[in-house]
Design goal:
The protein is α/β, with parallel strands linked by helices. It contains 17 helices and eleven strands. The strands form two sheets. The protein has a seven-stranded parallel beta sheet with strand order 4-3-2-1-5-6-7, sandwiched between helices. Helix 6 links the parallel strand 6 and strand 7. It is globular, with a radius of gyration of 21 Å. It starts with a strand and ends with a helix.
């Protein structure tokens, strides 16, 4: 019997990798795909994978294409608020790859309709993990992280007791500027910052990777998902991105998980798809194992590492403020309104402002509180820059 699956954000990089993972596998039936604006690509995907239901968020795009979808006998809905019209009972897997804080509400909306939810959305987990975990318990939905680092940790510790874990290492490539002269870091152009040495990613996450902000987010994710004290998590530079996580256990055991830089690998394994590794792949992996290198991040090149010192132990508005400030600054950089170095200096400066610090002991109660804080933060940043 085929497993039913839905993909939110099917036109993004994680969505495309998920489609690639199930493409030649007859054990999956795709019931729903969604996109924000890429209507033509969504239509192509629906046709190729014989999907009967599609959702598009952009109203203009919806009105432009609804007749085209109807002529292809595909149900097109405007907005993820219509999920309850599509699913009458739980599907086996839901993959949420919608980027940004905008992915939180769809996550909360789809949890009741899936047995297993696979999430690659950092911002949702960082800002709303309490809301997500509460809903997971309420609807008995299983959660599997599919970011390569968190999938690796999940795989490494799923049979371990929490008290046996001594240290979790998150690896970071160091991005395109790992060995850059500090004097040259101020006026790096976006086209250079977007060139990640190991991964093909979207613009926002590529900039976050270059500043190491992406790893700060992953640190916070790991703390929340695995209920681990921040003192037990550490970041190490690993330029080849072959090892994705290392776990130190009681008994002097060290476990690590390694794989090529293809998102299809954690996604396929999370879906239970096990493809064979060919001999030439094994030879390449052995070569990669023979060149493992790790080093501590240089705080002069990656000053955002200092954020970990002020990270509150308990859930608060800090995470929402952090994500929103960073999102705003990266967007300004990509639009040439600020220089590269300003992303990090402004981020650290704003986080220490009394305007924000007063919220670090307060906790959002629902998604409306989180969205309100996003709005407050954006307005403040726009006013100051």
């Amino acid at each position: 019997m085929s497993k039913k699956i839905a993909i939110l954000g099917s036109t993004g990089s994680i969505g495309l990798s998920t489609l690639q993972s199930i493409k030649k596998n007859n054990n999956f039936k795709l019931l729903l795909i969604s996109a924000n604006k890429k209507g033509e690509l969504l239509l192509k995907q629906a046709t190729e994978y014989k999907v009967k239901n599609a959702i598009i968020e952009d109203e203009t795009e919806f009105n432009r294409l609804k007749k085209v979808f109807k002529s292809k006998n595909i149900n097109l809905y405007h907005g993820l608020k219509n999920i309850n019209k599509i699913f009458k009972k739980k599907v086996d897997y839901c993959v949420n790859s919608i980027s940004g804080i905008e992915g939180l509400e769809p996550t909360l909306n789809i949890i009741p309709f899936c047995k297993n939810i696979l999430i690659a959305n950092k911002e949702s987990i960082i800002c709303g993990w309490d809301l997500i975990s509460s809903k997971l318990k309420k609807f008995n939905t299983n959660f599997i992280p599919i970011d390569s680092e968190h999938f690796s940790i999940w795989e490494l510790i799923k049979n371990e007791k929490l008290y046996n874990i001594k240290k979790i290492i998150l690896t970071a490539s160091g991005g395109p500027f790992l060995k850059i002269n500090q004097k040259k870091i101020f006026n790096i152009k976006p086209n250079l910052a977007l060139k990640h040495p190991n991964w093909k990613m979207g613009k926002k996450i590529s900039i976050d990777s270059s500043t190491m902000m992406n790893k700060i987010f992953e640190f916070i994710e790991a703390k929340k998902i695995f209920n681990i004290e921040k003192e037990k998590i550490q970041i190490l530079i690993h330029p080849t991105s072959f090892v994705h996580a290392i776990v130190f256990l009681k008994g002097n055991l060290i476990k690590f998980l390694a794989h090529d830089t293809k998102m299809t690998i954690p996604i396929s394994n999370a879906l239970g798809i096990k493809s064979d590794l060919k001999n030439n792949g094994i030879k390449k992996n052995i070569k990669d194992l023979n060149s493992l290198e790790f080093e501590y991040p240089d705080k002069k090149i990656f000053p955002v590492i200092s954020i970990l010192k002020i990270l509150p132990k308990k859930e608060s508005y800090f995470e929402t403020i952090l994500v929103t400030i960073n999102d705003t600054l990266v967007n300004k950089y990509l639009n040439s309104h600020i220089n590269y170095a300003s992303i990090q200096t402004n981020l650290l400066r704003f986080l220490k402002k009394p305007f924000f610090t007063k919220y670090y002991k307060l906790k959002p109660k629902n998604i409306y509180d989180i969205n309100k804080m996003v709005s407050i933060t954006k307005k403040y940043i726009e006013k100051k820059i």
